[in-house]
Amino acid sequence: MADVNLLTPGRIDGFDTKNRMMMAPMTRSRALAKGVPSELAIEYYAQRASAGLIITEGIAPCAVGLGYARTPAIENAEQVAAWKKITDAVHAKGGRIFAQFMHVGRIAHPANRYTTEPPISPSAVKAAGQMWTDTLQMQDMPAPRALDIKEIPGVIEDYAKATKNAIAAGFDGVELHSASGYLPMQFLSSNTNLRSDAYGGSAANRIRFVVEALDAMGKAAGSPSKVGIKISPAMPFNDIQDANPVETYTTLVKAIGNMGLAYLHVLQSAPEPSYFAMLRPLFKGPFAAGGGFTKDSGNAMLASGGADFIVYGKLFTSNPDLPVRFEKSAELVAFDANTFYTPGAEGYTTFKSL
Ligand SMILES: Cc1cc2nc3c(=O)[nH]c(=O)nc-3n(C[C@H](O)[C@H](O)[C@H](O)COP(=O)(O)O)c2cc1C
Questions:
Q1: Residue 176 Cα, ligand 1 centroid: separation in angstroms?
Q2: Is the CB of 230 under 6 A from ligand 1?
Q3: Which run of H or E residues covers position 53?
Q4: pTM
Q5: Active-site residue, from 182, 263, 275, 341
Q6: Which of 27, 42, 47, 244 has the fewest CB atoms within 10 Å of its CB?
Q7: pLDDT tens-digit map of 1-45
């Protein structure tokens, strides 16, 4: 595979990608009230259409799944119509775009939500740490309500409905956010999943929610090849911890490895052990590696056959035409963490292409 590099065309779900670079899902907190993406997002995503595949910011599949200030959802007609303008703009520039479904579970504050329903999780375990709200500034997150087993099919159904909405909004596919301590990872991880029913205990039980969600999303999309998944094994973000991540994630990837999914997206957050090396052989399909890649380390990873795609996050915030810059060996613009989550155009659509 020595001839494969970041600028080699790739393939996902039967379509060719311009290159092997994915834009990572990134929450940017510019949405309007009630989970509607803003007009600014049209330009923001269109500016980044040179990515082989754009993965959107985390989008709540349902109101209960929304936890952060100024974040979007995709459960009603107004939200779908706003997303349609975004996918149209990306497609007009020859880009491809998947919607990332981020159900936050317990990582939520009521002041950020347009529903009065309390946050849900596999178990009633409060997350340590605080969250930003526009009205009350930093706040503790309340303890979530534990889901009754009879309610779980309804949560899975929310992902299926959101998938249908995403396809109606023109997305090329959807990604299940099963990383970063949100609801699916709350099911996977032993410190947040204290259940003793079919969804808790053994690794085979803790992966059940994720497998069922992927299955439902594949059926709703018309094919599992329109559904990707992101995982971040052993990443402690959002007070999440698993007693045996190697067992959990090898069990999960073995279970989903032959489903015919669009891709497996792995965020590696610590040097050892390499979840890329561990999980790639277990997954029959495109493998996307992310977490701190540069041009050189991305090319080396592809050349070694360690991944099919490289996912770039922060670099895409300040270099909207990142693939073009790599091609031309152009200078990269440093990202600005101060404007990652601030409202308005500054730091969002103000970084220009070459
Ligand atoms: C501003 C910002 C927002 C992010 N929001 C999300 C998100 O909504 N969903 C997600 O899966 N990851 C999110 N991430 C993580 C990125 O997708 C990516 O995994 C991470 O930044 C590592 O890649 P990088 O080193 O190339 O930036 C976010 C990262 C940043 C910097």
A1: 14
A2: yes
A3: strand 53-59
A4: 0.98
A5: 182
A6: 244
A7: 558 999 999 999 989 999 999 999 999 999 999 999 999 999 999
